[in-house]
UniProtKB/TrEMBL annotation:
<dbReference type="InterPro" id="IPR000515">
    <property type="entry name" value="MetI-like"/>
</dbReference>
<keyword id="KW-0029">Amino-acid transport</keyword>
<keyword id="KW-0813">Transport</keyword>
<keyword id="KW-0472">Membrane</keyword>
<feature type="domain" description="ABC transmembrane type-1">
    <location>
        <begin position="16"/>
        <end position="208"/>
    </location>
</feature>
<dbReference type="InterPro" id="IPR043429">
    <property type="entry name" value="ArtM/GltK/GlnP/TcyL/YhdX-like"/>
</dbReference>
<keyword id="KW-1133">Transmembrane helix</keyword>
<comment type="similarity">
    <text>Belongs to the binding-protein-dependent transport system permease family. HisMQ subfamily.</text>
</comment>
<protein>
    <submittedName>
        <fullName>Amino acid ABC transporter membrane protein (PAAT family)</fullName>
    </submittedName>
</protein>
<keyword id="KW-1003">Cell membrane</keyword>
<dbReference type="InterPro" id="IPR010065">
    <property type="entry name" value="AA_ABC_transptr_permease_3TM"/>
</dbReference>
<dbReference type="GO" id="GO:0006865">
    <property type="term" value="P:amino acid transport"/>
</dbReference>
<feature type="transmembrane region" description="Helical">
    <location>
        <begin position="20"/>
        <end position="46"/>
    </location>
</feature>
<dbReference type="Pfam" id="PF00528">
    <property type="entry name" value="BPD_transp_1"/>
</dbReference>
<dbReference type="InterPro" id="IPR035906">
    <property type="entry name" value="MetI-like_sf"/>
</dbReference>
<feature type="transmembrane region" description="Helical">
    <location>
        <begin position="58"/>
        <end position="79"/>
    </location>
</feature>
<keyword id="KW-0812">Transmembrane</keyword>
Length: 225
């Protein structure tokens, strides 16, 4: 067996372990918190008072306009200067969640606004409140429209978690860095890490395809419900 292939075989489990124990939970937690935040920010942008809408726009502007890496550095390395000390994983989750929330708030706002006005009027004609119309009529349709964009954001986040290595979170890339520091084979280790990210993304892309096909076949809302 060639030496490079032997090295890849030996390092495969440590990299996969880092992915399963750190990368996957980091991605799931950050995306769940980020999408929940995005939903409420989008609602504030659409229906909140002027001051709250302005605050939401400022948050979106700030986190979409600055690099994610800089945001992570500010949270982990900068906040201790004002007395806020976070462990690496918590800092990474906060940073990724805020970034996901900023980007996807505009996605959710856009799909809600894309629903025809007649859907709102039909709901109001049935004596629904705005909250009821949003929950029962608008959001089921908006979810189907937003699914491709949210799925793409989730896949992108899997790869973005490699930035957590700068916070010393022992995810896939950090594990590859540590092994490369001992073996002096960065090309092999970083290539293997890239292949693992590619495998994760490929599985998620397939899942995205199946979800979109399912939601395309079955309407999420029908007037009879």
């Amino acid at each position: 067996m060639p030496a490079w292939l032997h090295l890849m075989a030996q390092s495969l489990w440590p990299l996969l372990y880092a992915g399963l124990v750190f990368t996957v939970p980091l991605t799931l937690a950050s995306f769940a918190i980020g999408v929940a935040l995005a939903f409420w920010v989008a609602l504030v942008r659409l229906f909140g008072p002027r001051w709250a809408s302005a605050a939401a726009r400022f948050y979106i502007w700030l986190f979409r306009g600055s690099p994610l890496l800089v945001q992570l550095f500010v949270i982990f390395y900068g906040l201790p200067n004002v007395g806020i000390v976070l462990d690496p994983l918590t800092a990474a989750i906060i940073g990724f969640s805020l970034n996901v929330g900023a980007y996807n708030a505009e996605v959710i706002r856009g799909v809600i606004e894309s629903i025809p006005r007649g859907q709102w009027e039909a709901a109001y004609s049935l004596n629904m409140t705005r909250a009821q119309a949003l929950r029962r009529v608008i959001l089921p349709q908006a979810i189907r429209v937003a699914l491709p964009a949210l799925s793409n954001a989730f896949i992108a986040l899997v790869k973005d978690t490699s930035l957590a290595a700068v916070l010393t979170v022992p995810e896939i890339f950090q594990a590859a860095q540590r092994i490369a520091a001992v073996t002096y084979e960065p090309l092999i280790l970083y290539s293997e890490a890239a292949l693992i990210y590619l495998a994760f993304s490929s599985v998620l892309s397939r899942a995205q395809f199946r979800l979109e096909a399912r939601f395309g076949r079955h309407a999420l809302f029908s007037p009879g419900r």
